[in-house]
Amino acid sequence: MTYHSQLNLIMLVTVIGLAVFLYLTPRFQSESDEAYSVSLRKPESVQTIRIVRHGQEAALQRIAGIWHLVQPYSARADTALVEKILHVLSANSRQRFPLKDPEGFSLDHPGIELYFDNDHFVFGGLAPVTNEQYLAINDHIYLVSPRYAIWIPASPLDLVSAKLLADNEIPVQFELDGVVIRQQNGQWDAVSENSGSLTHTLLESWANLWRFNQATELATDLRDHSDIQTVITIILQDGRQIRIDVFKSNSGAVFLRSGEQVGYYFSDSVSRRLLSPYAVKAD
User: Fold this and answer.
1) What is the extent of the structural domain holding 272?
2) pTM value?
3) Is 41 helix (H, G, I), strand (E, B) or coil?
4) Per DSSP, what are the bridge partners of residue 253?
5) Is 149 a domain residue?
6) 136 inside domain
7) What tens-digit pLDDT sequence spans the chain (283 residues)?
8) CA–CA separation, 262 vs 157, rounded Å?
9) Is residue 4 part of a domain?
């Protein structure tokens, strides 16, 4: 056999071997191929979410259209974060397998489990070739981007909103320390003996502090905050009323909404301005 004949034979064997390899290897769908939807459930239809992560559990419930953390403590949830978690319902996958071997996909001892109402989502290991993550939903396993697991907070406290007031909680009146500050005809006014020094613009800025300030820390252990410094009553645009108890703390104050179990810590400089529009004027 000549040299050229040997070379041609080697090339032929190589091509046949490659064809057999490609035939036997599971084929990923191309970008143009139809992808599998991991769920038919719409995010807006979900009413409850339960998260199990490394032994910690958190439960969320949609109440009057607003997400609330209901376990392990009661508090308003961070809406933007919950919406990120719900994005997994819209995920697509290029691969789908029957759920027969959980151990082979690191699904037998999962680090993260999600329950959307009655649907059970389990995050497994990473696929070695694509670096996508195995996700078991009911009776199937899908490959999805690892970002869906990254968006799930490690601690239940991370699910709590850091703002005292939700975006849809628009205040029209504050009552604190004998002072009534209310919005009338689009302008803020104060009813007190020394209210003449408080302008409409300054009072509007003060009201916005309540709407947009975020707590520096969130506190769940309030045993050291037994003495109430002041009580604030807020009346909202829709007629609802919110009571907030304020406790003096080291270098600041903790604000606790009635009916909730998470306190909002603000530094001394911020808490002074929240508790008095006169402090805003002084600054």
Assistant:
1) 171-282
2) 0.79
3) coil
4) 248, 266
5) yes
6) yes
7) 554 454 444 554 454 554 434 333 344 333 445 688 999 999 999 999 999 998 899 999 999 889 999 999 999 999 999 999 999 999 999 888 888 877 777 788 888 999 999 999 999 988 888 889 999 998 889 999 999 999 999 999 999 999 999 988 999 999 998 889 999 888 999 886 566 678 889 999 999 999 999 999 999 887 666 677 899 999 999 999 999 999 987 788 999 999 999 999 999 999 999 998 888 765 6
8) 9
9) no
